[in-house]
Target: Glutaminase
Amino acid sequence: MDLKQASDQLEQIRNQSLEFTYMGSVASYIPELAKVERHQLGVAVCLPDGTILSAGDAEVPFSMQSISKIFSLIVALCQNGKDYVFRHVGKEPTGDPFNSIIKLETTESHKPLNPMINAGAIAVAGMIRGANVDERLDAVLALMRKMTGNPHLSINQAVYCSEKKTADRNRALAWFLKDSGILETDVEETLDLYFRHCSIEVTAKDVATLGMVLAADGILVNTGERVIPEEVARICKTFMVTCGMYNASGEFAIDVGIPAKSGVAGGIMATVPQRMGIGVFGPSLDEKGNSVAGVKLLELLSKEWKLGIF
Ligand code: GLN
Model:
């Protein structure tokens, strides 16, 4: 890859996608997220040797939100093994919005359909072990700090408090899971852990690096150290394809064709197996909660660089 040419193309595609920020709006159900300037758009690409290319608002911090569901799943799988984890949460995509409650009651087992929707991620948070919430969060943060090489990753307190105060829907999901016996740990503590990991603050550059470690099947870019078992990395990438963009995952697979996970603060982590990790930040969201300009940018980049895996 000619780095100068790639860098120019990235800049051009980012600029071309910028107008799409006008089409959506920022998430407002978490009041702190509603304060963010919606016309931001940043992208970073991390290559297998750790080289980072970027354009636009690639160093603006934002909260991971649902992107963190990948990392809590990694920790839960490493601590409990996949048999235990998948006894409590399913592996199937849903056609419903990410915070939907309906299938929890209508499916026979009451298991959340997958770990990428809120109910599934709350069940996963319940499986993360530790003496207290701080220790359980540290397990997720330690993994992400190692993967990014950024020891300063931490949570955005304002976003955390804002979500905690307004999370009636997530509380309803968690109490339903407790009643069904899916959630075995303390409900409020588990919700607290979930809100905290959603508020971990990153930049598009951090996200690109995280995506590259997954692209390398769990091996660190600079040192070659294995930080995630290969099978766990494979499970995550598969969920990114089938469920990572909520109920737009099928459309995204057709239009973009890259494993990806988005969050309602406007981030998207994309992973091109063996080739690169991509981090996008564009807080203006479509009606399904995905970054409008971010999705467009990935579509253009995927076409230009032939990144689609299908
Ligand atoms: N913290 C957010 C929530 O629970 C995450 C949702 C998302 O990013 N889709 O609603």
